[in-house]
Design goal:
By secondary structure, this protein is α/β, with parallel strands linked by helices. The protein is built from eight helices and 16 strands. The strands form four sheets. The protein has a six-stranded mixed β-sheet with strand order 5-4-3-2-1-16. The protein is globular and about 50 Å long. A hairpin with a 2-residue loop joins strand 4 (about 115-125) and strand 5.
Length: about 300
């Protein structure tokens, strides 16, 4: 007797989930402001004013400079102006900006009463990331290590709207290690907030402004990323901050740049499809040998620190 088995019915395959659609264009507002030193409430009002202006410009993201809520040369005022991540001021800014994304700089007070030069990223009314400045300049006219603890991480995060996002603060951009880690994190957008005073002259340009342009153009092309740099203006402690905030494309081209010395809100439209085109033309991220880098750094670590 032959038994005929019924064919086993295979369960229907689950439909592949579609990736979250992302806008083809990013409108970023560069809030090039002159914060008042140590006056948190005055700076909060200035931020709220700029946020409203960015919303009128239909910006997707508004970016303020380093320590935008406090000013830079704080010295002994650091504990007085410090905030934690749950502070009422930060919550007010995030709510005011929503659903627009927001980046601002503040003094963060963490557990153990350690103080950090920090920047936060919020999106859709939610705090998503805080970066603590890793490289604290303590040379020449700078003395950050006297008042701040150094951050210990370079980490990217995923924005629902703009892909992988990384944050740096000022001196971080001067170190190749930061760029290397951001490339390994596969960032699409890299945001660097700075407080850079005008120093030196290089032909018709301020030397520090020319250096930041060079760093931004080189790193954006090496990483294949959109790079946003926002500097402040105004005077503190006899020093002049030069502005020149900019957005640089993945091809190393400056898409737009704010003027020197003037407080302003500059809104820039960025074609996010350019990232794909540039990565097809120059696939540096694809060809990067990350494991080789890790192995070589482990070897160097053993030679320099373990022998």
């Amino acid at each position: 007797m032959t038994l005929s088995a019924k064919p086993t019915q295979q369960p229907a395959a689950a439909p592949l989930s579609e990736p979250t659609p992302r806008p083809a264009e990013l409108r970023v507002a560069l809030a090039q402001i002159a914060p008042a030193l140590g006056d948190r409430q005055r700076n909060l009002a200035l931020h709220l004013e700029q946020i409203k202006a960015a919303q009128r410009e239909q910006a997707d993201l508004v970016v303020f400079p380093e320590l935008s809520l406090t000013g830079y040369f704080l010295r002994d005022m650091v504990p007085e102006v410090a905030m934690n991540r749950a502070s009422a001021e930060i919550a007010e800014l995030i709510e005011a900006a929503s659903p627009m994304a927001l980046v601002a700089g503040f003094v963060e007070e963490a557990e153990g009463h350690q103080f950090y030069n920090a920047g936060f990223y919020a999106e859709g009314g939610r705090l998503m990331h805080v970066h603590r400045k890793v490289y604290l300049p303590t040379y020449g006219l700078f003395e950050e290590h006297r008042y701040f603890s150094a951050g210990r991480r370079f980490r990217a995060f995923t924005s629902a709207r703009f892909g992988r996002v990384g944050m740096l603060i000022c001196e971080d951009l001067w170190h190749v290690s930061a760029a290397t880690i951001m490339q390994a994190e596969e960032v699409d957008v890299l945001i660097c907030i700075i407080n850079s005073p005008a120093r030196g002259v290089s032909g018709p340009k301020i030397a520090t402004a020319e250096t930041y342009e060079l760093l931004a153009r080189v790193f954006s092309q090496l990483l294949g990323t959109l790079l946003i740099v926002v500097n402040r203006v105004g005077f503190e402690d006899g020093l002049c901050f030069f502005g020149n905030s900019m957005v640089v494309g993945a091809d190393g081209r400056i898409i737009a740049q704010a003027p020197q010395f003037d407080a302003c809100l500059t809104t820039v439209s960025c074609d996010l499809a350019e990232l794909r085109r540039e990565r097809l033309i120059t696939p540096l991220g694809r060809d990067e040998q990350l494991l080789l880098t890790i192995e070589e750094l482990q070897r160097i670590k053993r030679r320099r620190y373990e022998t």
